[in-house]
Write a structure and sequence with these properties.
mainly alpha, three-stranded mixed β-sheet, 10% strand, two-stranded antiparallel sheet, f41 fragment of flagellin, N-terminal domain
Length: 324
C-alpha cells in the first residue's frame, strides 16, 4: 500500500542506487588509476606483497646498473689485454726473425722498441671510471675487484648481496712502484726454460715503466749487433712465457665478461617476472573492468528511472486525493 508521507518504493530504489553509485565509483577509480589494489585499505595482504616485490624490483634495477658498470670495466680491460697479447706476439716474432743469419738486429730492435711504446700506451689508457686493471702507480694497488651480481631475500626478510670477484693482479701489466708486480716490468729467469741444466740465473724483463725504475738484477729484452743466439733464445723463451701469462689473464677476463652477461640476462628476466607478478596482484583487469563499468552504468540509469517512477506514484496519489 502506498503512503503519501512515506514512500517505501522510493526509499528502496534510492538504497539500490546508492550501492550502484558506490560500486561504479570504485570501478571508475580502478580504470583511471590502473590499479585494482592501490592502497593498503583495498587489500592489506596483496598490497604488502606487491610493495615488497616492488622494492625487490627497484633493487634489481640498481644491480642491473652495477652489472653494466662492471661489464664496462671488464670490457675495457679485456680490449686492452687483447692488444697486449697481439703486441707480445709481434715482439716474439721479431725476436725469432733476429735469429736469421744476415738480419739487421738494430733495425729489428727499433721495431721492438716501437711495440714496447705501444704496450705502454695501451696499458696506460685502459682506464674506466677511475680504475685501471693493467697499469698501477699506487704503493698498495687494490687487486681484489668485485661486481654486485644479485641479491637474495631470506625467510625473515633480510637481504644479502652476491658478487662476482676477480683478482686483477693477473692483469697487472706495468707497475711503476714495484716492477715485480707487473708482468711486463718484472724479472723472469730464463734459466727455468733451459733444458741444459746449467742453472745459471739469466733474468730478463720486457720494459721499464714510464716514470718507474727497472727491476734490479735483470737485463731488458733488447737486441743489438752483438746479441748472441743464446741470448736471443733466452729472450724468446721469456717473451713466450709472458705471452702465455697474458693470454691466460685475457681468457680469465673473457670468462668474467661471460658471467656478467649471463647474470645481466638473468636479472633482466627476473625483473620482468616480478613486474608481471605485481601486475597480477594489484593491476586492474581492463577488459573485465570495462564490462563491469558498462553494466553498472546501465544499472545506474535503471535505478534513476526506478526512483523517478516511485516518486511519480506518490505525486499521482496526491492528485487523486486533491480531486476528491
Amino acid at each position: 500500500m502506498s503512503n503519501v508521507t512515506t514512500n517505501p518504493a522510493a526509499s528502496a530504489a534510492l538504497t539500490v542506487l546508492r550501492g550502484i553509485n558506490k560500486d561504479l565509483g570504485v570501478v571508475q577509480q580502478q580504470v583511471s588509476s590502473g590499479y585494482r589494489i592501490k592502497t593498503a585499505s583495498d587489500d592489506p595482504t596483496y598490497w604488502s606483497m606487491a610493495t615488497t616485490m616492488r622494492s625487490d624490483q627497484s633493487s634489481l634495477s640498481t644491480i642491473s646498473d652495477a652489472l653494466g658498470l662492471g661489464s664496462s670495466k671488464v670490457d675495457t680491460a679485456s680490449t686492452a689485454m687483447d692488444s697486449v697479447v697481439s703486441l707480445l706476439t709481434q715482439i716474439q716474432s721479431k725476436l725469432v726473425s733476429a735469429k736469421e743469419p744476415g738480419t739487421d738486429k738494430n733495425a729489428v730492435n727499433a721495431d721492438i722498441q716501437q711495440l714496447k711504446n705501444q704496450l705502454q700506451s695501451v696499458t696506460q689508457s685502459a682506464s674506466f671510471s677511475g680504475e685501471n686493471w693493467l697499469y698501477n702507480t699506487a704503493e698498495q694497488p687494490n687487486t681484489q675487484q668485485s661486481v654486485i651480481s644479485n641479491f637474495t631475500r631470506g625467510a625473515g626478510g633480510q637481504v644479502s648481496l652476491t658478487t662476482i670477484g676477480y683478482d686483477s693482479s693477473k692483469t697487472l701489466m706495468i707497475d711503476t712502484v714495484n716492477p715485480q708486480r707487473g708482468l711486463l716490468t718484472m724479472n723472469v729467469d730464463a734459466s727455468t726454460f733451459d733444458t741444459s741444466g746449467s742453472g745459471t740465473a739469466r733474468n730478463y724483463y720486457l720494459l721499464t715503466a714510464d716514470g718507474g725504475s727497472a727491476p734490479s738484477g735483470g737485463a731488458e729484452i733488447a737486441i743489438s749487433g752483438s746479441t748472441t743466439d743464446a741470448q736471443l733464445t733466452d729472450m724468446i723463451n721469456v717473451t713466450n712465457s709472458l705471452l702465455k701469462s697474458a693470454t691466460s689473464a685475457d681468457s680469465t677476463l673473457g670468462l668474467m665478461k661471460s658471467n656478467i652477461n649471463d647474470q645481466s640476462d638473468y636479472v633482466s628476466k627476473l625483473t620482468d617476472t616480478i613486474k608481471s607478478s605485481v601486475g597480477d596482484l594489484v593491476d586492474t583487469n581492463m577488459e573485465e573492468a570495462a564490462v563491469r563499468q558498462s553494466s553498472l552504468q546501465t544499472a545506474q540509469q535503471m535505478g534513476v528511472q526506478s526512483l523517478s517512477i516511485a516518486n511519480s506514484m506518490a505525486s499521482k496519489i496526491l492528485i487523486i486525493l486533491q480531486s476528491k
